[in-house]
Structures are given as C-alpha cells and as structure tokens.
Amino acid sequence: MSTFSGALTHAADVAPAAVAASGLFSLTWLLIGFPLAGAAVLLLWGRRSDKWGHWLGVLASAASFVVAVVLFFGMLGQADDSRTVRQHLFDWIAVGTFNVPFDLRLDQLSITFVLLITGVGTLIHIYSVGYMSHDPERRKFFGYLNLFVASMLLLVLADNFLLLYVGWEGVGLASYLLIGFWFVKQSAAVASKKAFIVNRVGDLGLSLAVMLMFITFGSVTFDGVFAQAGSASESSLTWIGLALLLGACGKSAQFPLQSWLLDAMEGPTPVSALIHAATMVTAGVYLIVRSNAIFNAAPTAQTVVVIVGAITLLMGAIIGCAKDDIKKALAGSTMSQIGYMILAAGLGPVGYAFAIFHLVVHGFFKADMFLGAGSVMHAMNDQVGMRRFGTIRSWMIVTWITFGAGYLAILGIPPFAGFYSKDRIIEAAFSRGIVVGLVTVIGAGITAFYMTRLFVMTFHGKKRWTDDVHPHESPSIMVVPMAILAVLSALGGFLLAYNNAIFEWLAPVTGFEEPHLAISSLGMEGISLVVVIAGAALGWFLYDRRPVAEIAPAGNFLTRAARADLYGDAVNEAVFMRPGQYLTRSLVWVDQRVVDGAVNGVAATIGGLSGRARRMQTGFTRSYALSMLGGAALVVAALVLVRL
Amino acid sequence: MSATLAVVGSFEIPTIEYAALAPIMIVMGAAVLAVLVEAFVPQRFRRVTQLVITFASLVGAFAMVVKAGGTSQIVAMGSVAIDGPTLFMQGSILVLAALAALVMAERQVDPSGDSFAPRASALPGSADEQAFTRLGWLQTEIWPLFLFCVGGMLLFPASTDLLTMFVALEVLSLPLYVMVGLARRRRLLSQEAALKYFVLGAFSSAFFLYGTALLYGFAGTVSLTGIANALSASAADSGLVVTGVALLAVGLLFKVGAAPFHQWTPDVYQGSPTSVTGFMAACTKVAAFGALMRVLYVALGGISWDWRPVMYVISALTMIVGTLFALTQTDIKRMLAYSSVAQAGFMLVGVVATSAAGLQGTMVYLLAYGIATVGAFAILTLVRDSTGEASHLSQWAGLGRRSPWVASAFALFLLAFAGIPLTSGFTGKFAVFTAGVAGGATSVVVIGVVASAVAAFFYVRVIVLMFFTEPSAEGGPSVVVPSAFTKSAITISVALTLVIGVLPQLVLNLVGQAGVFVR
C-alpha cells in the first residue's frame, strides 16, 4: 500500500467488512431481477408481445433505476463504514475448500455503476422507442437491451470473480447479438463475429486470472482475494494483474485488442450509445479499479496498465482525426477516453477515483453525442458520412444544442463536465511522471481537434448534402433523453466534484490520494486549457474557414494509416489470422490429399459409391492400424525414456 | 503339472456377493431374457416385450445402484470392486443408456419404420434387401445386443483384475460392433464402419491382452492391488513393467478415443445409426474412462511419476488434434466425432491430475458430456430430407427460423460442449481444469483452455449457421415431429444440462460422496 496524505486519507485494505443485507437492502436482487424478467418475457413470449414489448423493456429498466435510487439514498443514510452490503442469494458451488456463493455486493463503487447503467440505460431505452419505431423486430431489440442491462448489473454487483465472469460473458453475448442485430447486412454480421472473437481473447485473460487467484489464494470471492493480496508473492500478483488487464483490454477495446470497437458501429446507434460508449466498454476500468488491492501490490502490472492506457488514448485520438463516418469518429474518441480511464486506473490510489469520475461523466457526454449522431442520421436518411453533412444546425436546433453540450464537455471547457474529470487525470498523470503527463495533455489537444472537426463538419460550414435528404428535427421521444443527457454533460461534473463529493464517496473502496504537483493545480489547468483551445482553433480553421471536399482527398501517410485504424486489422491478420488460415488450410490439404486423395483417385477410375466405399474400407483401416501401432511404439519409447 | 494340481487341490467354492452385483446381474439377466423373447415371443408382441424388459431392467438396476450407495468393498473373489466411483459411473451409464434407449425406440421419424436395418445380413443394395424394405419388415434384435453391451459397460469400470476387465471389454465391444452395422440407410457406410471398428477394436484388445500378460509376468498376478504391491516391493525390473503398462494403456486409450488412437471415431460415428452413435459416444466413454482411471490410480498409482509425462502429452495431443480437425469438418456427425475426441482430451486433464479431485472432476465431466451427447445425437435424428438424415452443415442453415425449439435445444448442447457458464459443460471443464492445476499439470491446463477457446469457435459456428444464416433456396431439410420417446429423451437431456450448469452443487456433492477407488 502506498502512503497517504492530505485530508482524504482512506485505505482500501482497511475497508469495513460487508454486512449482510437486511431491510431496504434486501431489495438488491431486484436490480437484476427486473431487466432479466423483462428480457425473458420479451424473448420467450414471441410475437404476441410485439405491440407493447418496447414499453415493457423501458419499464423494466426504469424500475431498476428507481430501485437503484432508493438504495442509493438508503446508503447515504448509513455510516461510512457500514455502506458495504452483501446479499446472499444461494450457495452456487460448495465443494470441499472451493466455495462460491451466489452473492451480490452493494457498495459505493457498485452503486455508482448501477446508477449510471440504469439511469443512462433507461434514457437510451426511451430514445430507442422512437429510433427503432420502423423496425419490425423492435421487441427483440428491447429484449436484447434488457438482457444486456441485467448482465451488466450482474457484472458490477457480483461479490466474487466467478460470478463477475458470468456477467462478463453475458454482456459479451448481448453485445454480439446487438451488433449483429441487422445481421442481414453482411458488414454487421462480420462485425459481430469480430467482436465475439476478439472478446474471446480477452475472456481467456479473465478466466486465467480467476484460476490463478484460486491457486494463489484458494478463493475467488472479493473479500477472500483482497484480504490475502498483501501476503502473496509479487510475481504471482503481477501475473494475475496482467491476466486481468488482458480481460480489461478485450472488453474495453484497449491496445492490442482495440480493433473490434470501430466495426461494432454497425449496430443500431442506441446500442453504440449504451454499450460501446456508456457502459460495457467501461467494464475493464471497473475490473481494474475493483481489483485495486492486487494492482497496488503489483507495480509492474500497474506500469503495463499505464502504458496500455497511454498507447490507446493516442491511437484512438489519431484514428478519430481521420474518420469521415460520424459514428466511427465517435468510436475512436471512445477508445481514447477509455484510454484515459485505464491510464488513471494504472496510477494507483491517486487515480482510481478519478478514473471512475471520468467514466461517469464520459457516460453522460458520450451517450449524449451518440444519441445526437443518431438523431442526425435519422434526419439524413441514415447516412453517416460527415463529408455529405454540413450546416445542419439550422434545421436541427435542439440536436445542435444538446450535441454542443457534449462537445464542450469532452473538450473540457469549464464549467462543462469533462473539465473537472479530465484535468484531474492529467494532474494525476503528471504526478507519476512527465512523459505520462505530456501524453495526456497532447491527447487532450488532439481530442479538441477531431471533435471540433466532427462538430463543424456536421453542423456548420457549407451544405454538402446528397439530393434526396430533407433534414428535420427528431420526435420528442428522442429529443427529451438527449436534453437530459445534455444537462448532465453540462452540470454533472461540477455537481459530482463539488467539495470532492464523489471522491469521498468512493474512497472507502478505492482509496484516495491527492496528486503532488510541481506547479499549482490552477497553472496545470491553464496549460491544458491553452492546448485544448489551440487544438479546437486548428480544427475550426481547417474545416470551417476552408471548404470541405465531398470526396475524401487521398491524404498523407498518417491520414491513410489512421483511416485504416492504424493498421490494427492488418496486424491482427498477419499475426493471428493468416497463420491460423495456413494451419487450417494445410489441415484441409492433409485431409484432402493424404486421406481422401488416395480414395478419390481410385474413385475417379472406378466410379460409383460402392466401389469408392470398398476402397475406403481397406485403405483406411490399414493406415489407422499402422498409426495405432506407431502410437503404441511411441508410448513405450516415451515410458522407457521417462524411466531413464 | 504339479502347479495345476496344487491349484485344483486348493480349489474352493467361490463366494459371490449377489446383492452388491445386482445391477450387473439384472441387466445381464434381462439380456438373456431378451434373447429368449426374440426366439419365442410372436412378432407382434416382441417390440412391446423388449421395451418393457429393457426399461424395467435399466430402472431396476439403477434402483439397486442407488440402494448400494455408500458401500465400498471388493466382491466376487477380489475381481469386482463396488465402491463410490463404481456406483457413480454405473448410475451415469444407466441414466445415459436409458436416454439413448428412448431415442432407439423411436418409430415415427423414419417413414419406413425405425432407423435399423430390416435384415442386417442382407447384402447392401441386393434384391433381398430391397424386398425386405418394401415389405416393411422391422427388427427388434437391437435390444438384446443393447442390454449385453450395457451389462459389459457396468462391469468394465468395476473390474479389479485385468482378466475380468478384459472380459467386460469384450462383452461391451462385441454387441457394439454389430449395432454399428445396423443402420437402415447408407448401409455400405454402416457396414464399413462396423468392420472397421471390429478390426481396429480387435487390434486394440490384443494390445490390452499382451499388456496384461506382461504385467502378469512381472507381478505374478492380474489383480490391480497385487500389481500395485509388486510395484512398490521392487522397482528394479523395468522392461516388463514399462512395456506392459504401455500396451495396456494403448488398449484403454483406444476405447476412450484418445489421439493417436482416435482415427476410428469419425468413420464409426458417421456410419452408425445415429441413435447408436449417441449411446456409444456417451456410455462407452464413461465405462472406458472408469476402467482407465482404475488401472492408473489403483494399480499404477505408485509409479505415477513414470506414466504422467506420457499422459500429459497424450492429453494435450488429443485436445489439439480433436479441436483442429473438428474445425474443418463439413458433416455434423463427423464434427461431433472429432469434438468427442477433443472432449476426451479435456477429460484426460482430470485423469493426469492423479488426485481424488481429478477422479471426481472427470466423473462430473463424463456425466455432463454424456447427457449433452445423447441429446445432440437425438436431435440429429430429427433433421431429415427425403434421403434420410441431413447431416451436411450447409443443410442446417436457417434451421433456427423454421424450428426454433429444436435449434435452441441443439444450441444448448453445443454451448455445453463448448463449456459456456450456466451449462453442464462449464461445471465439468471447471472441475477438471482446477483439479489439473492443483495436480501440477498447469501446462496441460493452459493448452486445454486455449483448445476450448478454439473449440468454442466451431460450436458457435453451427449456432450462427442455424440462427443467422438465410436458409438455402430449395427448402432444405425439415425437422420431423418425433413420438414421445425422442421428445422425452431430448427434454430430459436439456433439463439435466441446465440443472448441472445452474446448480452444479447437486452433482458435485454426489461425486464428493463417491470418494475414491477402494484398494
């Protein structure tokens, strides 16, 4: 454990033990129960629920949010040290020394996530009622959304790593179903497959971590693991930390498993807002912050976390600069912002609370902007190319204002929300070292540039529409959720950070430490603000003052690289896919030439099924017997060798 | 000569503990009765009588297994052990056999009657055969064969000396060779599979027997405990032991379907009547793993350091070969065959753990895998076109649109094979992998985790094909509505797969109580 200073000194490892859920808190299971029941009804009831299904979906999510709010106020009424509540549902696995109860854990960290997931989730459910109103499969869509919310809540409420893994797989499944929702589109089907495969790699990391924990600590419950984290050897903690990081990279689209997120934009836009901006992609951050006791004792793993975060935050920002597809530009930005959170989470107690704070605020403004993008697409015949947008603000004034709030928030212009959260991360990064600090400042500058480019190309400049579009403002069922998120993007940061409220709230779980800076905090804020304004000004100069080409120009080397996602796919193909293909191809070759070849050759001369089958019989059995004999000889030889 | 006389002189009347052997005796007795039924009962009552005998004996034997719970003793003059693992595996075999029997009893799916040849002796394609088919002849010979096979399977994991084990091996194998050749459609493929299985099976039996002989040469006894004692007394004479152990293992690994002794599986699984494939894949694996573990743990436990490295390699090789070849299959039956090879590799991870946890984990895995296997092959019998079962992968495209329930059940079994949480497969994989790590086989477990990640791909590919791919234009195969037999087999398999996945406690407690092999 690091040392603490300042007024806010709490240590995560002296966190109070969880108390059994009673009274109000025995409602915790309802958080998951409502959306799960919603999903069950919507998916099993079938077409009979087509008429009212979407409202049931909204209701399930909203009910869960109401419970969350009630529980939150209930927790506020408790003393600081009795806010961690455990609800025991049943004994899941109990064999000898291996005990895994089906327990939910409600504490300051999980309720923060629960409020974000159900709150933003409900708004997105409401928005989807309008957005998906023309889709014949709308009921199924809401079933999947509810399934996702239930899985995500299980992920953040689980009291042990195995149960967390169940939620982890659940969100993966829901995400796969939702990305591929329009599976008739080839690109959507491919994107969902890609997300699935890349996520499997990450899941492998998490499952390895769980097994390593069981070997090291003999337990997979949070209390069991974290209480013993201090006494384990550093090398095993480092391996656990790295395995957890691999899991986090898969879900949170961090380098080197980032490639699926950009393609995942093939899903319906509310999905991008809910899963690929506000909630699921933050699961990696949750995992690292939740496992803080492990990372605090494994500095090497922490350093790797910081490096991964730094690389991703720059990669995402650079990719965001070159994309002409509004959703893909936002996806690049999501990668980059989550890079900030991962980086902060790698800084240790000085960064955990900031990571979570930025995560919540990012949930507000990124969901706001994605819904805004959806609103623009709705108006522009589902086009996504920003080169054919321009000057839309005059037709969609509300969308312009709400998107603008999100835009100012991500830039970090005071008093918008991002200013409070991002500057804290930059300060914490500088307290770690000058290089890390510079990366975060440069990232902020690039962010300002590409977000300005996106905003200006969409809402300002000249009209570059295709002939058949007639923009119009979206219906109020879509506008109202956007407006609420816009207000949160504008004020949320100030309210949460007022008097360090959110940091004090989280401190018993995550620990807290004020960053130490060479210069004053105010000076730091000034420097980053100057960089941000410079970036924004450059974007405004290049894309508002000068005409934008309707067809993308060839661009220089860097632009081309960024358009190709910095060759992430090319690397994947070269390193994983091609060798795999060669392997399967050579296996097919062996199967066809060596195994079938003899048979086929004979079959061609004799013809007819019977002749072929007869030949197969003799040829095969002899060779099988030969290989059995060879195998037996090898087994004998191996046993003799072992004996020697 | 004098030795023979001495044996005769000291001959004593063997004591047989009939109560403890009741499950085996009930099934064997029923098998004999079933042969008599074939001879004496008129054709029209035969099917009903056979079904009553079959199911009554399976249920009766299962009741005796349950009743014997908690016993741990060596009976029948030291040749059969009735202990926790034996009872658990006998129970599993009986449950799986009953499920498989439900599928075999189906007569509504195939328009020409059932899925077995009217006269197995008729030459494929001959005028005789066509006549039998035209006359609509049906056969009930499958039931005595089935019961003998189950009887052998019940004895195989319980044998505590190598000769009893060999007899059990032959009793379970011989009827199986015949059953493989009984498919009604694609007769040539079926007969080819039967002959292939028979030749290779005989070859492997020879290995087993030769291994037995060499170990007898070393220890002077064929009893597993006796061999263990001889091994602990002297470790000097390695030639006989090493060769004997290796040959014995080859014989058992063939039945298990482990690489490099696995090549028969795809051909035999594909050629057999599908209901027999399900029975064979599920029950033979339980019995063979039971015998393999008893030999390795009881007789060779003392020299585990010698055979463990070899078994590591075989386990890893089996997982890799099974997974990689399954990836390129285009026929569902062949894919499931290679998948069963891979599954055998995963189970071997539990075996190489050489601990109580490994034994118990493998037993859980066997039960979970067996249930999903019987269910999956039962569903294969339902998807048909005019020529019979439609087992080419491309024919399954879009099946989920037309028959969502059947496709969902199949998807569940595939997820169980893949080891996705909340299915029985996860419980099994978790049990063997944790046992493997605790037993020091971390490298094999890592290979296992990677292989299962790769394996998930080809399982999920079928699910994607069923639910997210447009069906081909010309209509493709349809799902036949079966009678209550197959319906209940599938329903029970689905229910058990979910129960073991969601409440693994039940079965984990059961194997926990089963404890370890009696010595």
From TrEMBL, chain A:
Residues 92-142 form the NADH-Ubiquinone oxidoreductase (complex I) chain 5 N-terminal domain. InterPro entries: NADHpl_OxRdtase_5_subgr (IPR018393), ND/Mrp_TM (IPR001750), NU5C-like (IPR003945), Proton_antipo_N (IPR001516). Pfam families: Proton_antipo_M, Proton_antipo_N. Residues 158-447 form the NADH:quinone oxidoreductase/Mrp antiporter transmembrane domain. The chain crosses the membrane at residues 27-45, 52-76, 109-129, 141-158, 164-184, 204-227, 269-289, 301-322, 338-357, 392-413, 433-456, 477-498, 518-543, 624-642. Its main location: membrane. NCBIfam families: NDH_I_L (TIGR01974), PRK06590.1 (NF005141). This is Unannotated protein. It comes from freshwater metagenome. The lineage of its organism: unclassified sequences, metagenomes, ecological metagenomes.
From TrEMBL, chain B:
One of its GO terms (cellular component) is membrane. It is found in: Membrane. Coiled coil: none annotated. It holds the Pfam family Proton_antipo_M. The keyword Transmembrane applies. Residues 159-453 form the NADH:quinone oxidoreductase/Mrp antiporter transmembrane domain. PANTHER family: NADH DEHYDROGENASE (PTHR22773). This is Unannotated protein. Signal peptide: none annotated. It is a multi-pass membrane protein. Keywords: Membrane, Transmembrane, Transmembrane helix. GO terms for molecular function: NADH dehydrogenase (ubiquinone) activity. GO terms for biological process: ATP synthesis coupled electron transport. The chain crosses the membrane at residues 20-41, 48-66, 86-105, 142-159, 165-183, 195-219, 239-258, 279-303, 309-328, 335-357, 363-383, 404-424, 444-468, 489-511.
